[in-house]
Amino acid sequence: MDVTQLLRELTTLNKHTESAVKLLKSISRLEQNRLQNLPQLRKRLTQLDGYLKQLIQNPETFEALQNWADDYRRELLNSEQDFRKLFGGVLEEELKKKGLSLSGQYPDLKTGLFTIELDFDREDAILWYGPKQERLSQCPLNAVEVVKSVEKIKGQLGGNLDKAEFLQRLQEAYSRVVGDEAGDPAPIIDVLTEFAYLLQSSRFLQDPRREHYRGYGRADFSYDLFLLRQPSLPEGLHLLVATRARTRRRRDFLWVPDNVSGRGTTYSHLQFKSNSKSRHIGELWEVVNHE
What we know:
The chain is α+β, with helices and mostly antiparallel strands. The protein has 9 helices and 9 strands. It has helices at residues 3-30, 38-54, 59-96, 143-156, 163-178, 188-198, 202-206, 218-228, 286-289; strands at 103-105, 108-111, 114-119, 124-129, 134-140, 186-187, 237-241, 254-257, 264-272. A hairpin with a 4-residue loop joins strand 4 (124-129) and strand 5. Helix 1 runs antiparallel to helix 2 (38-54), helix 2 (38-54) runs antiparallel to helix 3 and helix 3 packs across helix 4. The longest helix is centred in the N-terminal third of the chain and has 38 residues, at 59-96. It is elongated, with a radius of gyration of 28 Å. The model is unreliable at 276-291 (pLDDT under 50).
């Protein structure tokens, strides 16, 4: 091995050594709050493994680092178990600050109309509307960030319309679906499609580009219907419960909450009937059941 090659290898080894030292210093700082910094600690330990392979040229250094890394990895695994046990309690305390409660069992926790799916392996949390009906957002597995995400989604749900305006547009969307067959049941997702169109601004109608579109999805429509039926549906409006056959495809049904605790019902059709008294919203419509 000539001098040039030797210098090259020693320089490379020195760089790896310096990098390993930086990682160890970083790990030492993060160790001051291990539970909070578990994701960063795991990441740095993985990086250190790469440098260990290069440092094998120095057996004593390699063996010492390898033994330390093996012991530390076992400690992190134990701390991970502690983190999982403590996370639910920390999340519950953060939610209480916002006037929200927490229930359920890992990996699916519930708060109000939302389900929080915890993924400890990927270190993130997925926020769902209802019992995992509509996926809303994803955030880091951090109690404060999860609560921020819940609060943000709560503020964005629905079309931000008062009951009178929502009902007026709902009737118009329904009429666009049934046409001359007024009084007939309309597939609820078809009504949603028309309703979303009616929410668009004149700017979108003149130039229907993505940046001009006002988003309005399944969770928004469900939430607005939930608000509309508090304390009960307006007279003449009926939501028709979906049969089991109609819950096989998302195209055929929509889940709507029954109450703020997250219990709900799936509906397949929506119907406006004049000169009739409102039925209980859980009543099955006979014709739909026989389709």
